[in-house]
Amino acid sequence: MNAVFAPPFLFKELRKNHAKSHFRGVKPRFVGCKMEATSGADDLVSGELVSVAHALSLPAESYGNDPDIEMAWAMRAMQHAEVYYKLISSVDPQFLKLTKVDDQIYSEFRENFEKLRIDVLDPEELKSESAKEKWRPFCLKFNGIVEDFNYGTLLRLNCSQGYTEENTIFAPRIQFFAIEIARNREGYNKAVYATVQDKEEKGANNGGDKGADSGGEEKGANQEGEKEKTSKGGEKEK
């Protein structure tokens, strides 16, 4: 498995988020790596991360700012982000199914957040106290329906861009699913897919052009060689 290195900004976000739950009365959990659409996602969780699984399940107040735990969370967060970004880059997002209850999540989301702009998210619409009050009942509806519904997960603000420091925030897993399912169904994530496919197509075409040029040069060289042989043969006959 390729090593996954967590950028420093993740630790800053973890320290801001891991000591408090997005929901009252619900134990905070962090950074799951499973998605229904990616059967290979579990393979991305290394042995080192499995060994700290028990620690990751403990409530926030029991570990403080343990750097090893923060590193494990950050690595798992990045792994999840990499899996998802590769997914929407290689498959038309409109055909993706992220959970077994995508229809329910999308229906409830748009019923409660009909006018929420999702192509470019405003963090205040997710993180402010008034926003949390509105999100809390929506999220709690999926407690027991969506596995690990309140795991912390990386969410992109601008759906046309990747997971950079400026474009990434932590969000509960159900919030990630709600927004990304809507982005997929409403066509916003197609920008990522189209960009990646265009780059791959251009790369393939450039490779073909180089191959054609090489073949032309080789053919020309062969023709010159044949002419030279013919000329020498003619001289000998004389």
From TrEMBL:
Residues 198-238 are annotated as: Disordered. Gene3D superfamilies: yst0336 like domain. InterPro entries: PBDC1-like_dom_sf, PBDC1_metazoa/fungi, Polysacc_synth_dom. It comes from the Eukaryota. Pfam families: PBDC1. Residues 210-238 have a biased composition (Basic and acidic residues). Residues 69-193 form the Polysaccharide biosynthesis domain. This is Polysaccharide biosynthesis domain containing 1. It comes from Sus scrofa.
